[in-house]
Amino acid sequence: MYTKQYPGPNTDVEEALARVCTGPHQTRPLGAKPDDPIKPSAILEIILRSIKGELPEDQAVSDAQMGAFFAAMTIRKGFPKKTQWSEAEIAAFDKYRPDLERLMPPEIRFIMQPELGHTDTNPDETVVVKALEKILRGGHLNYDETRQMGKAILNGDVKGALKGAALIGQRMNLESYDEVRGYLDATFGPNQVRNVSVESLTHFGQPFDGATRYFRPTLFVAVVRAALGEPTVLHGVDEMPPKSGITEEKILQALGARTDLFLDEAAGLIEDPEVGFAYVSQREYAPGAYGVRELRVHIKKRPPWAATEKAQQLFTAAGENYMVIGYYHVGYETPLLQLIWERGFRAGLVVKGEEGTSHYALRLGNPSTEERQAINYSQGFRRVGERREDFSLDIDPSEFGFDYEKNPRVETVSPETFASAGMEALSGQKGQIYDRLVLNTAMTDYLLGICSDPHEAIERTKEAIDSGRALAHLKAYIAKSRP
Length: 483
What we know:
By secondary structure, this protein is α/β, with parallel strands linked by helices. The protein folds into 2 domains: 11-174, no CATH class; 195-481, 3-Layer(aba) Sandwich (Pyrimidine Nucleoside Phosphorylase, Chain A, domain 2), CATH 3.40.1030. It has helices spanning 11-20, 40-51, 63-75, 87-103, 106-112, 123-135, 143-155, 160-172, 177-187, 218-227, 248-255, 263-271, 282-285, 287-291, 295-298, 305-308, 333-342, 415-426, 432-447, 454-466, 469-481, and strands spanning 194-196, 200-205, 232-236, 277-281, 315-317, 320-326, 347-352, 377-384, 387-394. A 7-stranded mixed beta sheet has the order 4-3-2-6-7-8-9, with helices on both faces. A two-stranded parallel sheet has the order 1-5. Helix 19 packs across helix 20 (454-466).
C-alpha cells in the first residue's frame, strides 16, 4: 500500500468529481434535476466545513480533491451549454462565494478565478501555475510545457490543489498528442533508455491497476516467449489505487522472485539465454511517479499518465524492437501507436483486451463495428523499410480451435491463485489458463510479424510449454533474480 499524504478523501466530493471531472460531452452538471442526489450546495458546505476543520480527518476534503473540483467548475464555463453550470450550481456558488473567497487558500482562489493570478512559492509551482493559466481556460500545452509540468508534479514541491487541478484539467480538455508525448517523457525520458545485448526485444504495457475479474497472463506469456527466443520486458507496480487489482509484481512475489531489480540487473536477466525476460517496478525506474499513486484516489479520474505509462520504453535491443499495449478507452489507440512508430519500433500492437489489457478473451462475443470496438479488437503497424503498414482486426479464438460458450473466469482472484494457475499451465495442465497462454502468445507473435502463420504460431507455442522449456525459464528467473 501507499503511504497516505492527504486526509480523506471525502466520499461525497468523490461522487461529485465523478460527475463533473469529465469531458465536454460527458460531464453531468450537479443539481440539474430536482431529484438529483448530489446537490452543489451540499458539496460546497462540505468543502467549507473541511476548511474550517469541522470534519474528522478520514472524512476531510483533501487539497487535491478541492483542486480537481474547482478546476472542473472553472473549465466547464467554456463547455457546451448542456455540460455547463446548472442553475443549481450557479445559485450555490452565488450563495457561498463570500465564504469561499474569505476562507479558501490563495491557490484555490486562483483555480476558481485564474485571471487573479497566483504568487508561487518555488520554481516547481511556477511551472505548474503557468501551465494552469492555459489549462483552466480550456487551452493546451506544447510538448516542452507538458514535460516540464509533469516533472514538477512527479518530482517537485507542488501543492496538492495545483496538482489535482492540472491533471484533471488536462483530462477534461482531452489531451493533445504533444501532451501525451510530454507526459510519457516526464516519467522516463528517451535519454534514459538503456541498451541490451539481444537481437530483439518486446515491451508489454498493461494497466498498472491490475486485474480483478480475469486471470492476468502477461508474466506467463513473457515466459513462453522467452522460451521461444523472443526476449520480453514487463513493467508496472505492486498495487495501484483505486482498483488495486492483481499485478505482475504481486504474482512474482507470490512465486518467490525479487521485484526490486535495478535496470542493469533486469538487463542482465533479459540477456541471459536461460531467462530471457525481466520485470521492472516503477519504484526503480520512476520513483517520482510511483510516489504520487495516492493522488489518483483523490482526483477520482485517471491522470493523463495512466495511459502513457503503458508505452514506457526502458530498453532497446540491437536489432528489432516491438511494443504491445492494452487499452480500454477508445481514442487512445491512435496516439499510442504513433508514439511507438516515432520511437522507431519495428512493429506496434494495441489491443482492446480484458480489463483494458492486451489479453485476448477466449470468446469474441459481438464483432467490432464502425461505431463499437469489441473486446479482442487489435490494431497495429509493421515497419517495412521506412513505410508503415497498418492493420486492424478482431481476434476470434474459435477460428483457432478455442471453443468457449462464455469467456471463463477464475474462481478466486489473488496473487497466489494466479501464480499457482500459471505454474500448472506451464507444467502442461490443459484448461482455460493453458489456452489463454497459447492464444495470447501466438496471436501476439503473429500480429507483430514475428511468426507469419497464426496456426504455426499456436503449434510452436504449445511445444514451448509442453516440452517444459517455458517452465524452466520461469524457474531460472526466480532463482537468478534473488540476491
